[in-house]
């Protein structure tokens, strides 16, 4: 018999200047144990009408860092490139989003999963090109070049 893969789930809410007393975030289920090869759906919802984004993070056992798996921003869902074939994000950032693991892998999927809710932000400033140079002593220099102002804001998601 194949040992069960333990999938731990936990909830976290990212508050950005909001009154926490009027808001809540719920992640269901809180914890579960599944066999490798099975699928899992984790749901996250929030009650803040000013939040339009739900992010999904994974924290491997014994680690303190978290990795962004994907997010729902308004009604658009995005999974980070390196996780495209492993996880799915469904729903809306406005209220309810789900992280779906279609097929559990043995140890890779055993982790604490976090959802976080926030307002959706974007940058209106054009991205400045960069160039890396090496000086005569062999030290690396990072040069930030100012982009020409075209007068047209560029939106970055």
TrEMBL record:
The keyword Iron-sulfur appears for this protein: no
* Record's keyword terms, sorted: Immunity, Signal
At the highest ranks, the source species' classification is:
Eukaryota, Metazoa, Chordata, Craniata, Vertebrata
Q: Name one GO biological process term.
A: immune system process
Task: Using the record, list the residue span of the signal peptide; answer none if the entry has no such feature.
Answer: 1-20
Q: Where is the Ig-like domain?
A: 23-134
GO CC field: plasma membrane
- UniProt cross-references to InterPro entries, sorted A to Z: Ig-like_dom, Ig-like_dom_sf, Ig-like_fold, Ig_sub, Ig_V-set, TCR_beta_variable
Q: One of this protein's Pfam families, by short name?
A: V-set
Source organism of the structure: Xiphophorus maculatus
Its name, as the record gives it, is Ig-like domain-containing protein
Query: Which residue spans adopt a coiled-coil conformation according to this UniProt entry?
Result: none
């Amino acid at each position: 018999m194949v040992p069960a893969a333990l999938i731990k789930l936990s909830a976290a809410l990212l508050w950005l200047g909001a009154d926490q007393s009027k808001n809540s975030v719920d992640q269901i289920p809180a914890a579960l144990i599944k066999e490798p090869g099975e699928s899992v759906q984790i749901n996250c919802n929030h009650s803040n009408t000013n939040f339009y984004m739900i992010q999904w993070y994974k924290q491997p056992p014994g680690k303190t860092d978290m990795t962004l798996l994907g997010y729902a921003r308004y009604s658009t869902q995005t999974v980070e490139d390196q996780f495209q074939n492993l996880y799915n994000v469904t729903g809306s950032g406005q209220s309810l989003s789900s992280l779906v693991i279609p097929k559990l892998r043995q140890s890779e999927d055993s982790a604490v999963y976090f959802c976080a809710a926030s307002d959706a932000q974007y940058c209106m400033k054009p991205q400045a090109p960069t160039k890396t140079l090496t000086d005569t002593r062999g030290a690396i220099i990072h040069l930030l070049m100012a982009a020409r102002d075209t007068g047209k804001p560029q939106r970055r998601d």
